[in-house]
Amino acid sequence: MITFYYEWLSLIKADFKAITLFTEKGGFTGNLTDMCRQASLSVETRNRNSLKISIERLKNQELILVEQTGTTFKIDIIPKDKKIEISEKTLNMIKTIKPTEAVEWSNILKLYLWIDYNSGTVATNREIGIELGLSEQVCGRANRALSEYFPEVFRETIKTVTPDNHYITIGQRFEMGVDFKG
Prior knowledge:
The longest helix is centred in the first third of the chain and has 16 residues, at 45-60. Strand 3 (64-69) and strand 4 form a beta hairpin. Helix 2 (32-38) packs across helix 3, helix 4 (88-96) packs across helix 5 and helix 6 packs across helix 7 (136-149). By secondary structure, this protein is an alpha+beta fold. 43% of the residues lie in helices and 24% in strands. The chain has 7 helices and 8 strands; from the N terminus they run E-H-E-H-H-E-E-E-H-H-E-H-H-E-E. It has helices spanning 13-24, 32-38, 45-60, 88-96, 105-117, 125-132, 136-149, and strands at 2-5, 28-30, 64-69, 72-77, 83-86, 122-123, 153-161, 167-176.
């Protein structure tokens, strides 16, 4: 199982992708070129600089410990309170799916982890998006991608009836299927 922390879900995309790489490997030792290769990024100055900036931000937020010797980084995760575990198989599946709508794997992963942690909660795409640092539209696309590829993630639209007999959607209730946790 790969451990994520709820506290990471609001990170910006570049930082979330970087911390996913570090947690996926149980920490990391290597240089920026090695990181690019592990993350399936082209080895170019732009990507190396982006990783370097993410490492600095994650370190400043006390999410990772960094030891640097020359160009080699040794990175360890600092555990947080709200732990979420995901299987390597599920993580790889999320990273490689090709949804019908344009949505990054990192946004699908954030929503998957949010649902796992908040199973049973009623929320709108807007509310979830605010919590995850995503727009309502991106959250909706990630939601539809999960529905398309992960039938074990149950989603129910919750509606209420107004006094004048109109239905109003108040949100969605998500549940993580038992078979999918491993």
